[in-house]
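Dear colleague,

Following up on yesterday's call, I've attached the two folding results inline so they're easy to grep. Please treat them as preliminary; we haven't cross-checked anything against experimental data yet. The first protein's sequence and structure tokens come first.
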Amino acid sequence: MKKKILIILTFIFLSLIGCSWYLVQKKLNPEEIKKLTQSELSKVFPNGNVQLGELNISIGFTIKIKILKLSIDTKNKKRNISLLKLNNILVKIPAWSILRGEGAIDIAIDSPLIVYEEFNKTNNWQFAIGKESKKE
């Protein structure tokens, strides 16, 4: 009798895990995540032009998010100025870390390029985020 109950409970538990895994995979749409990411970055950099390349998501015991390209440019006095160019971004998030609320996230970036350029009273980063500061 106890073995039957244990088998039934194990089956129910595994079914719940399988159903939730399926629902998570169906709800995580790469296009929606790409739009959301681009929208949030555009809020941070209102004077910037955010371009986000192809985004791929794979779900397993580790959630892997791969972004082929991320670039942020700004236009100052009719001249395009690059802020940031990142290629092949890979983010690994262990599922166990999410469940426990602790752990490490691995981020790998190939050939990062960060550009800092000063103008008379500001720099390209301050201009992109919409802050004009006076130089002392």
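Below is the second protein, in the same order (sequence, then structure):
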Amino acid sequence: MTKFTANAYNPRNREFIPMDDLLESQEFDRLTNATKIPLYQQKIENDRVYYEQSKWNSIICKDQEINSVGPNYDLIQHQEAFISVINTLNKAGIKMKGRINDFGKIAWLDMVFENLKIEDPTNEKGIELGYSVRSGYA
């Protein structure tokens, strides 16, 4: 199995599976989504309380506010970010295996390239190459 540097937030302890299988898996379908909703500012005028929509929006993930963003912020879901990278690598002719770790507001897609390796005279298997993509709402 290919080794990646791990840290406490992203242990990356799953096996790599063929990319086609990963994309069709329930795990990929269930990647955490976020929503962008408008924020409202409380106003008081002549003892009347009302709320006016501000230019700011809130990013909500798993029923928690993750971030406040401006009006031009484009919310990109984990799935969209990962598919964009996978499609680009596929167009370049790269075959991959992958694994996903979803922590809600942050998700990782780790890939190992099956048809790209560095020849290493000290190791007959060679050195595997890969790529890691982080998608986050925060």
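For the second protein, one point worth flagging: Strands lie at 17-18, 34-45, 48-61, 64-69, 96-102, 106-120, 123-136.

Best wishes,
A.L.
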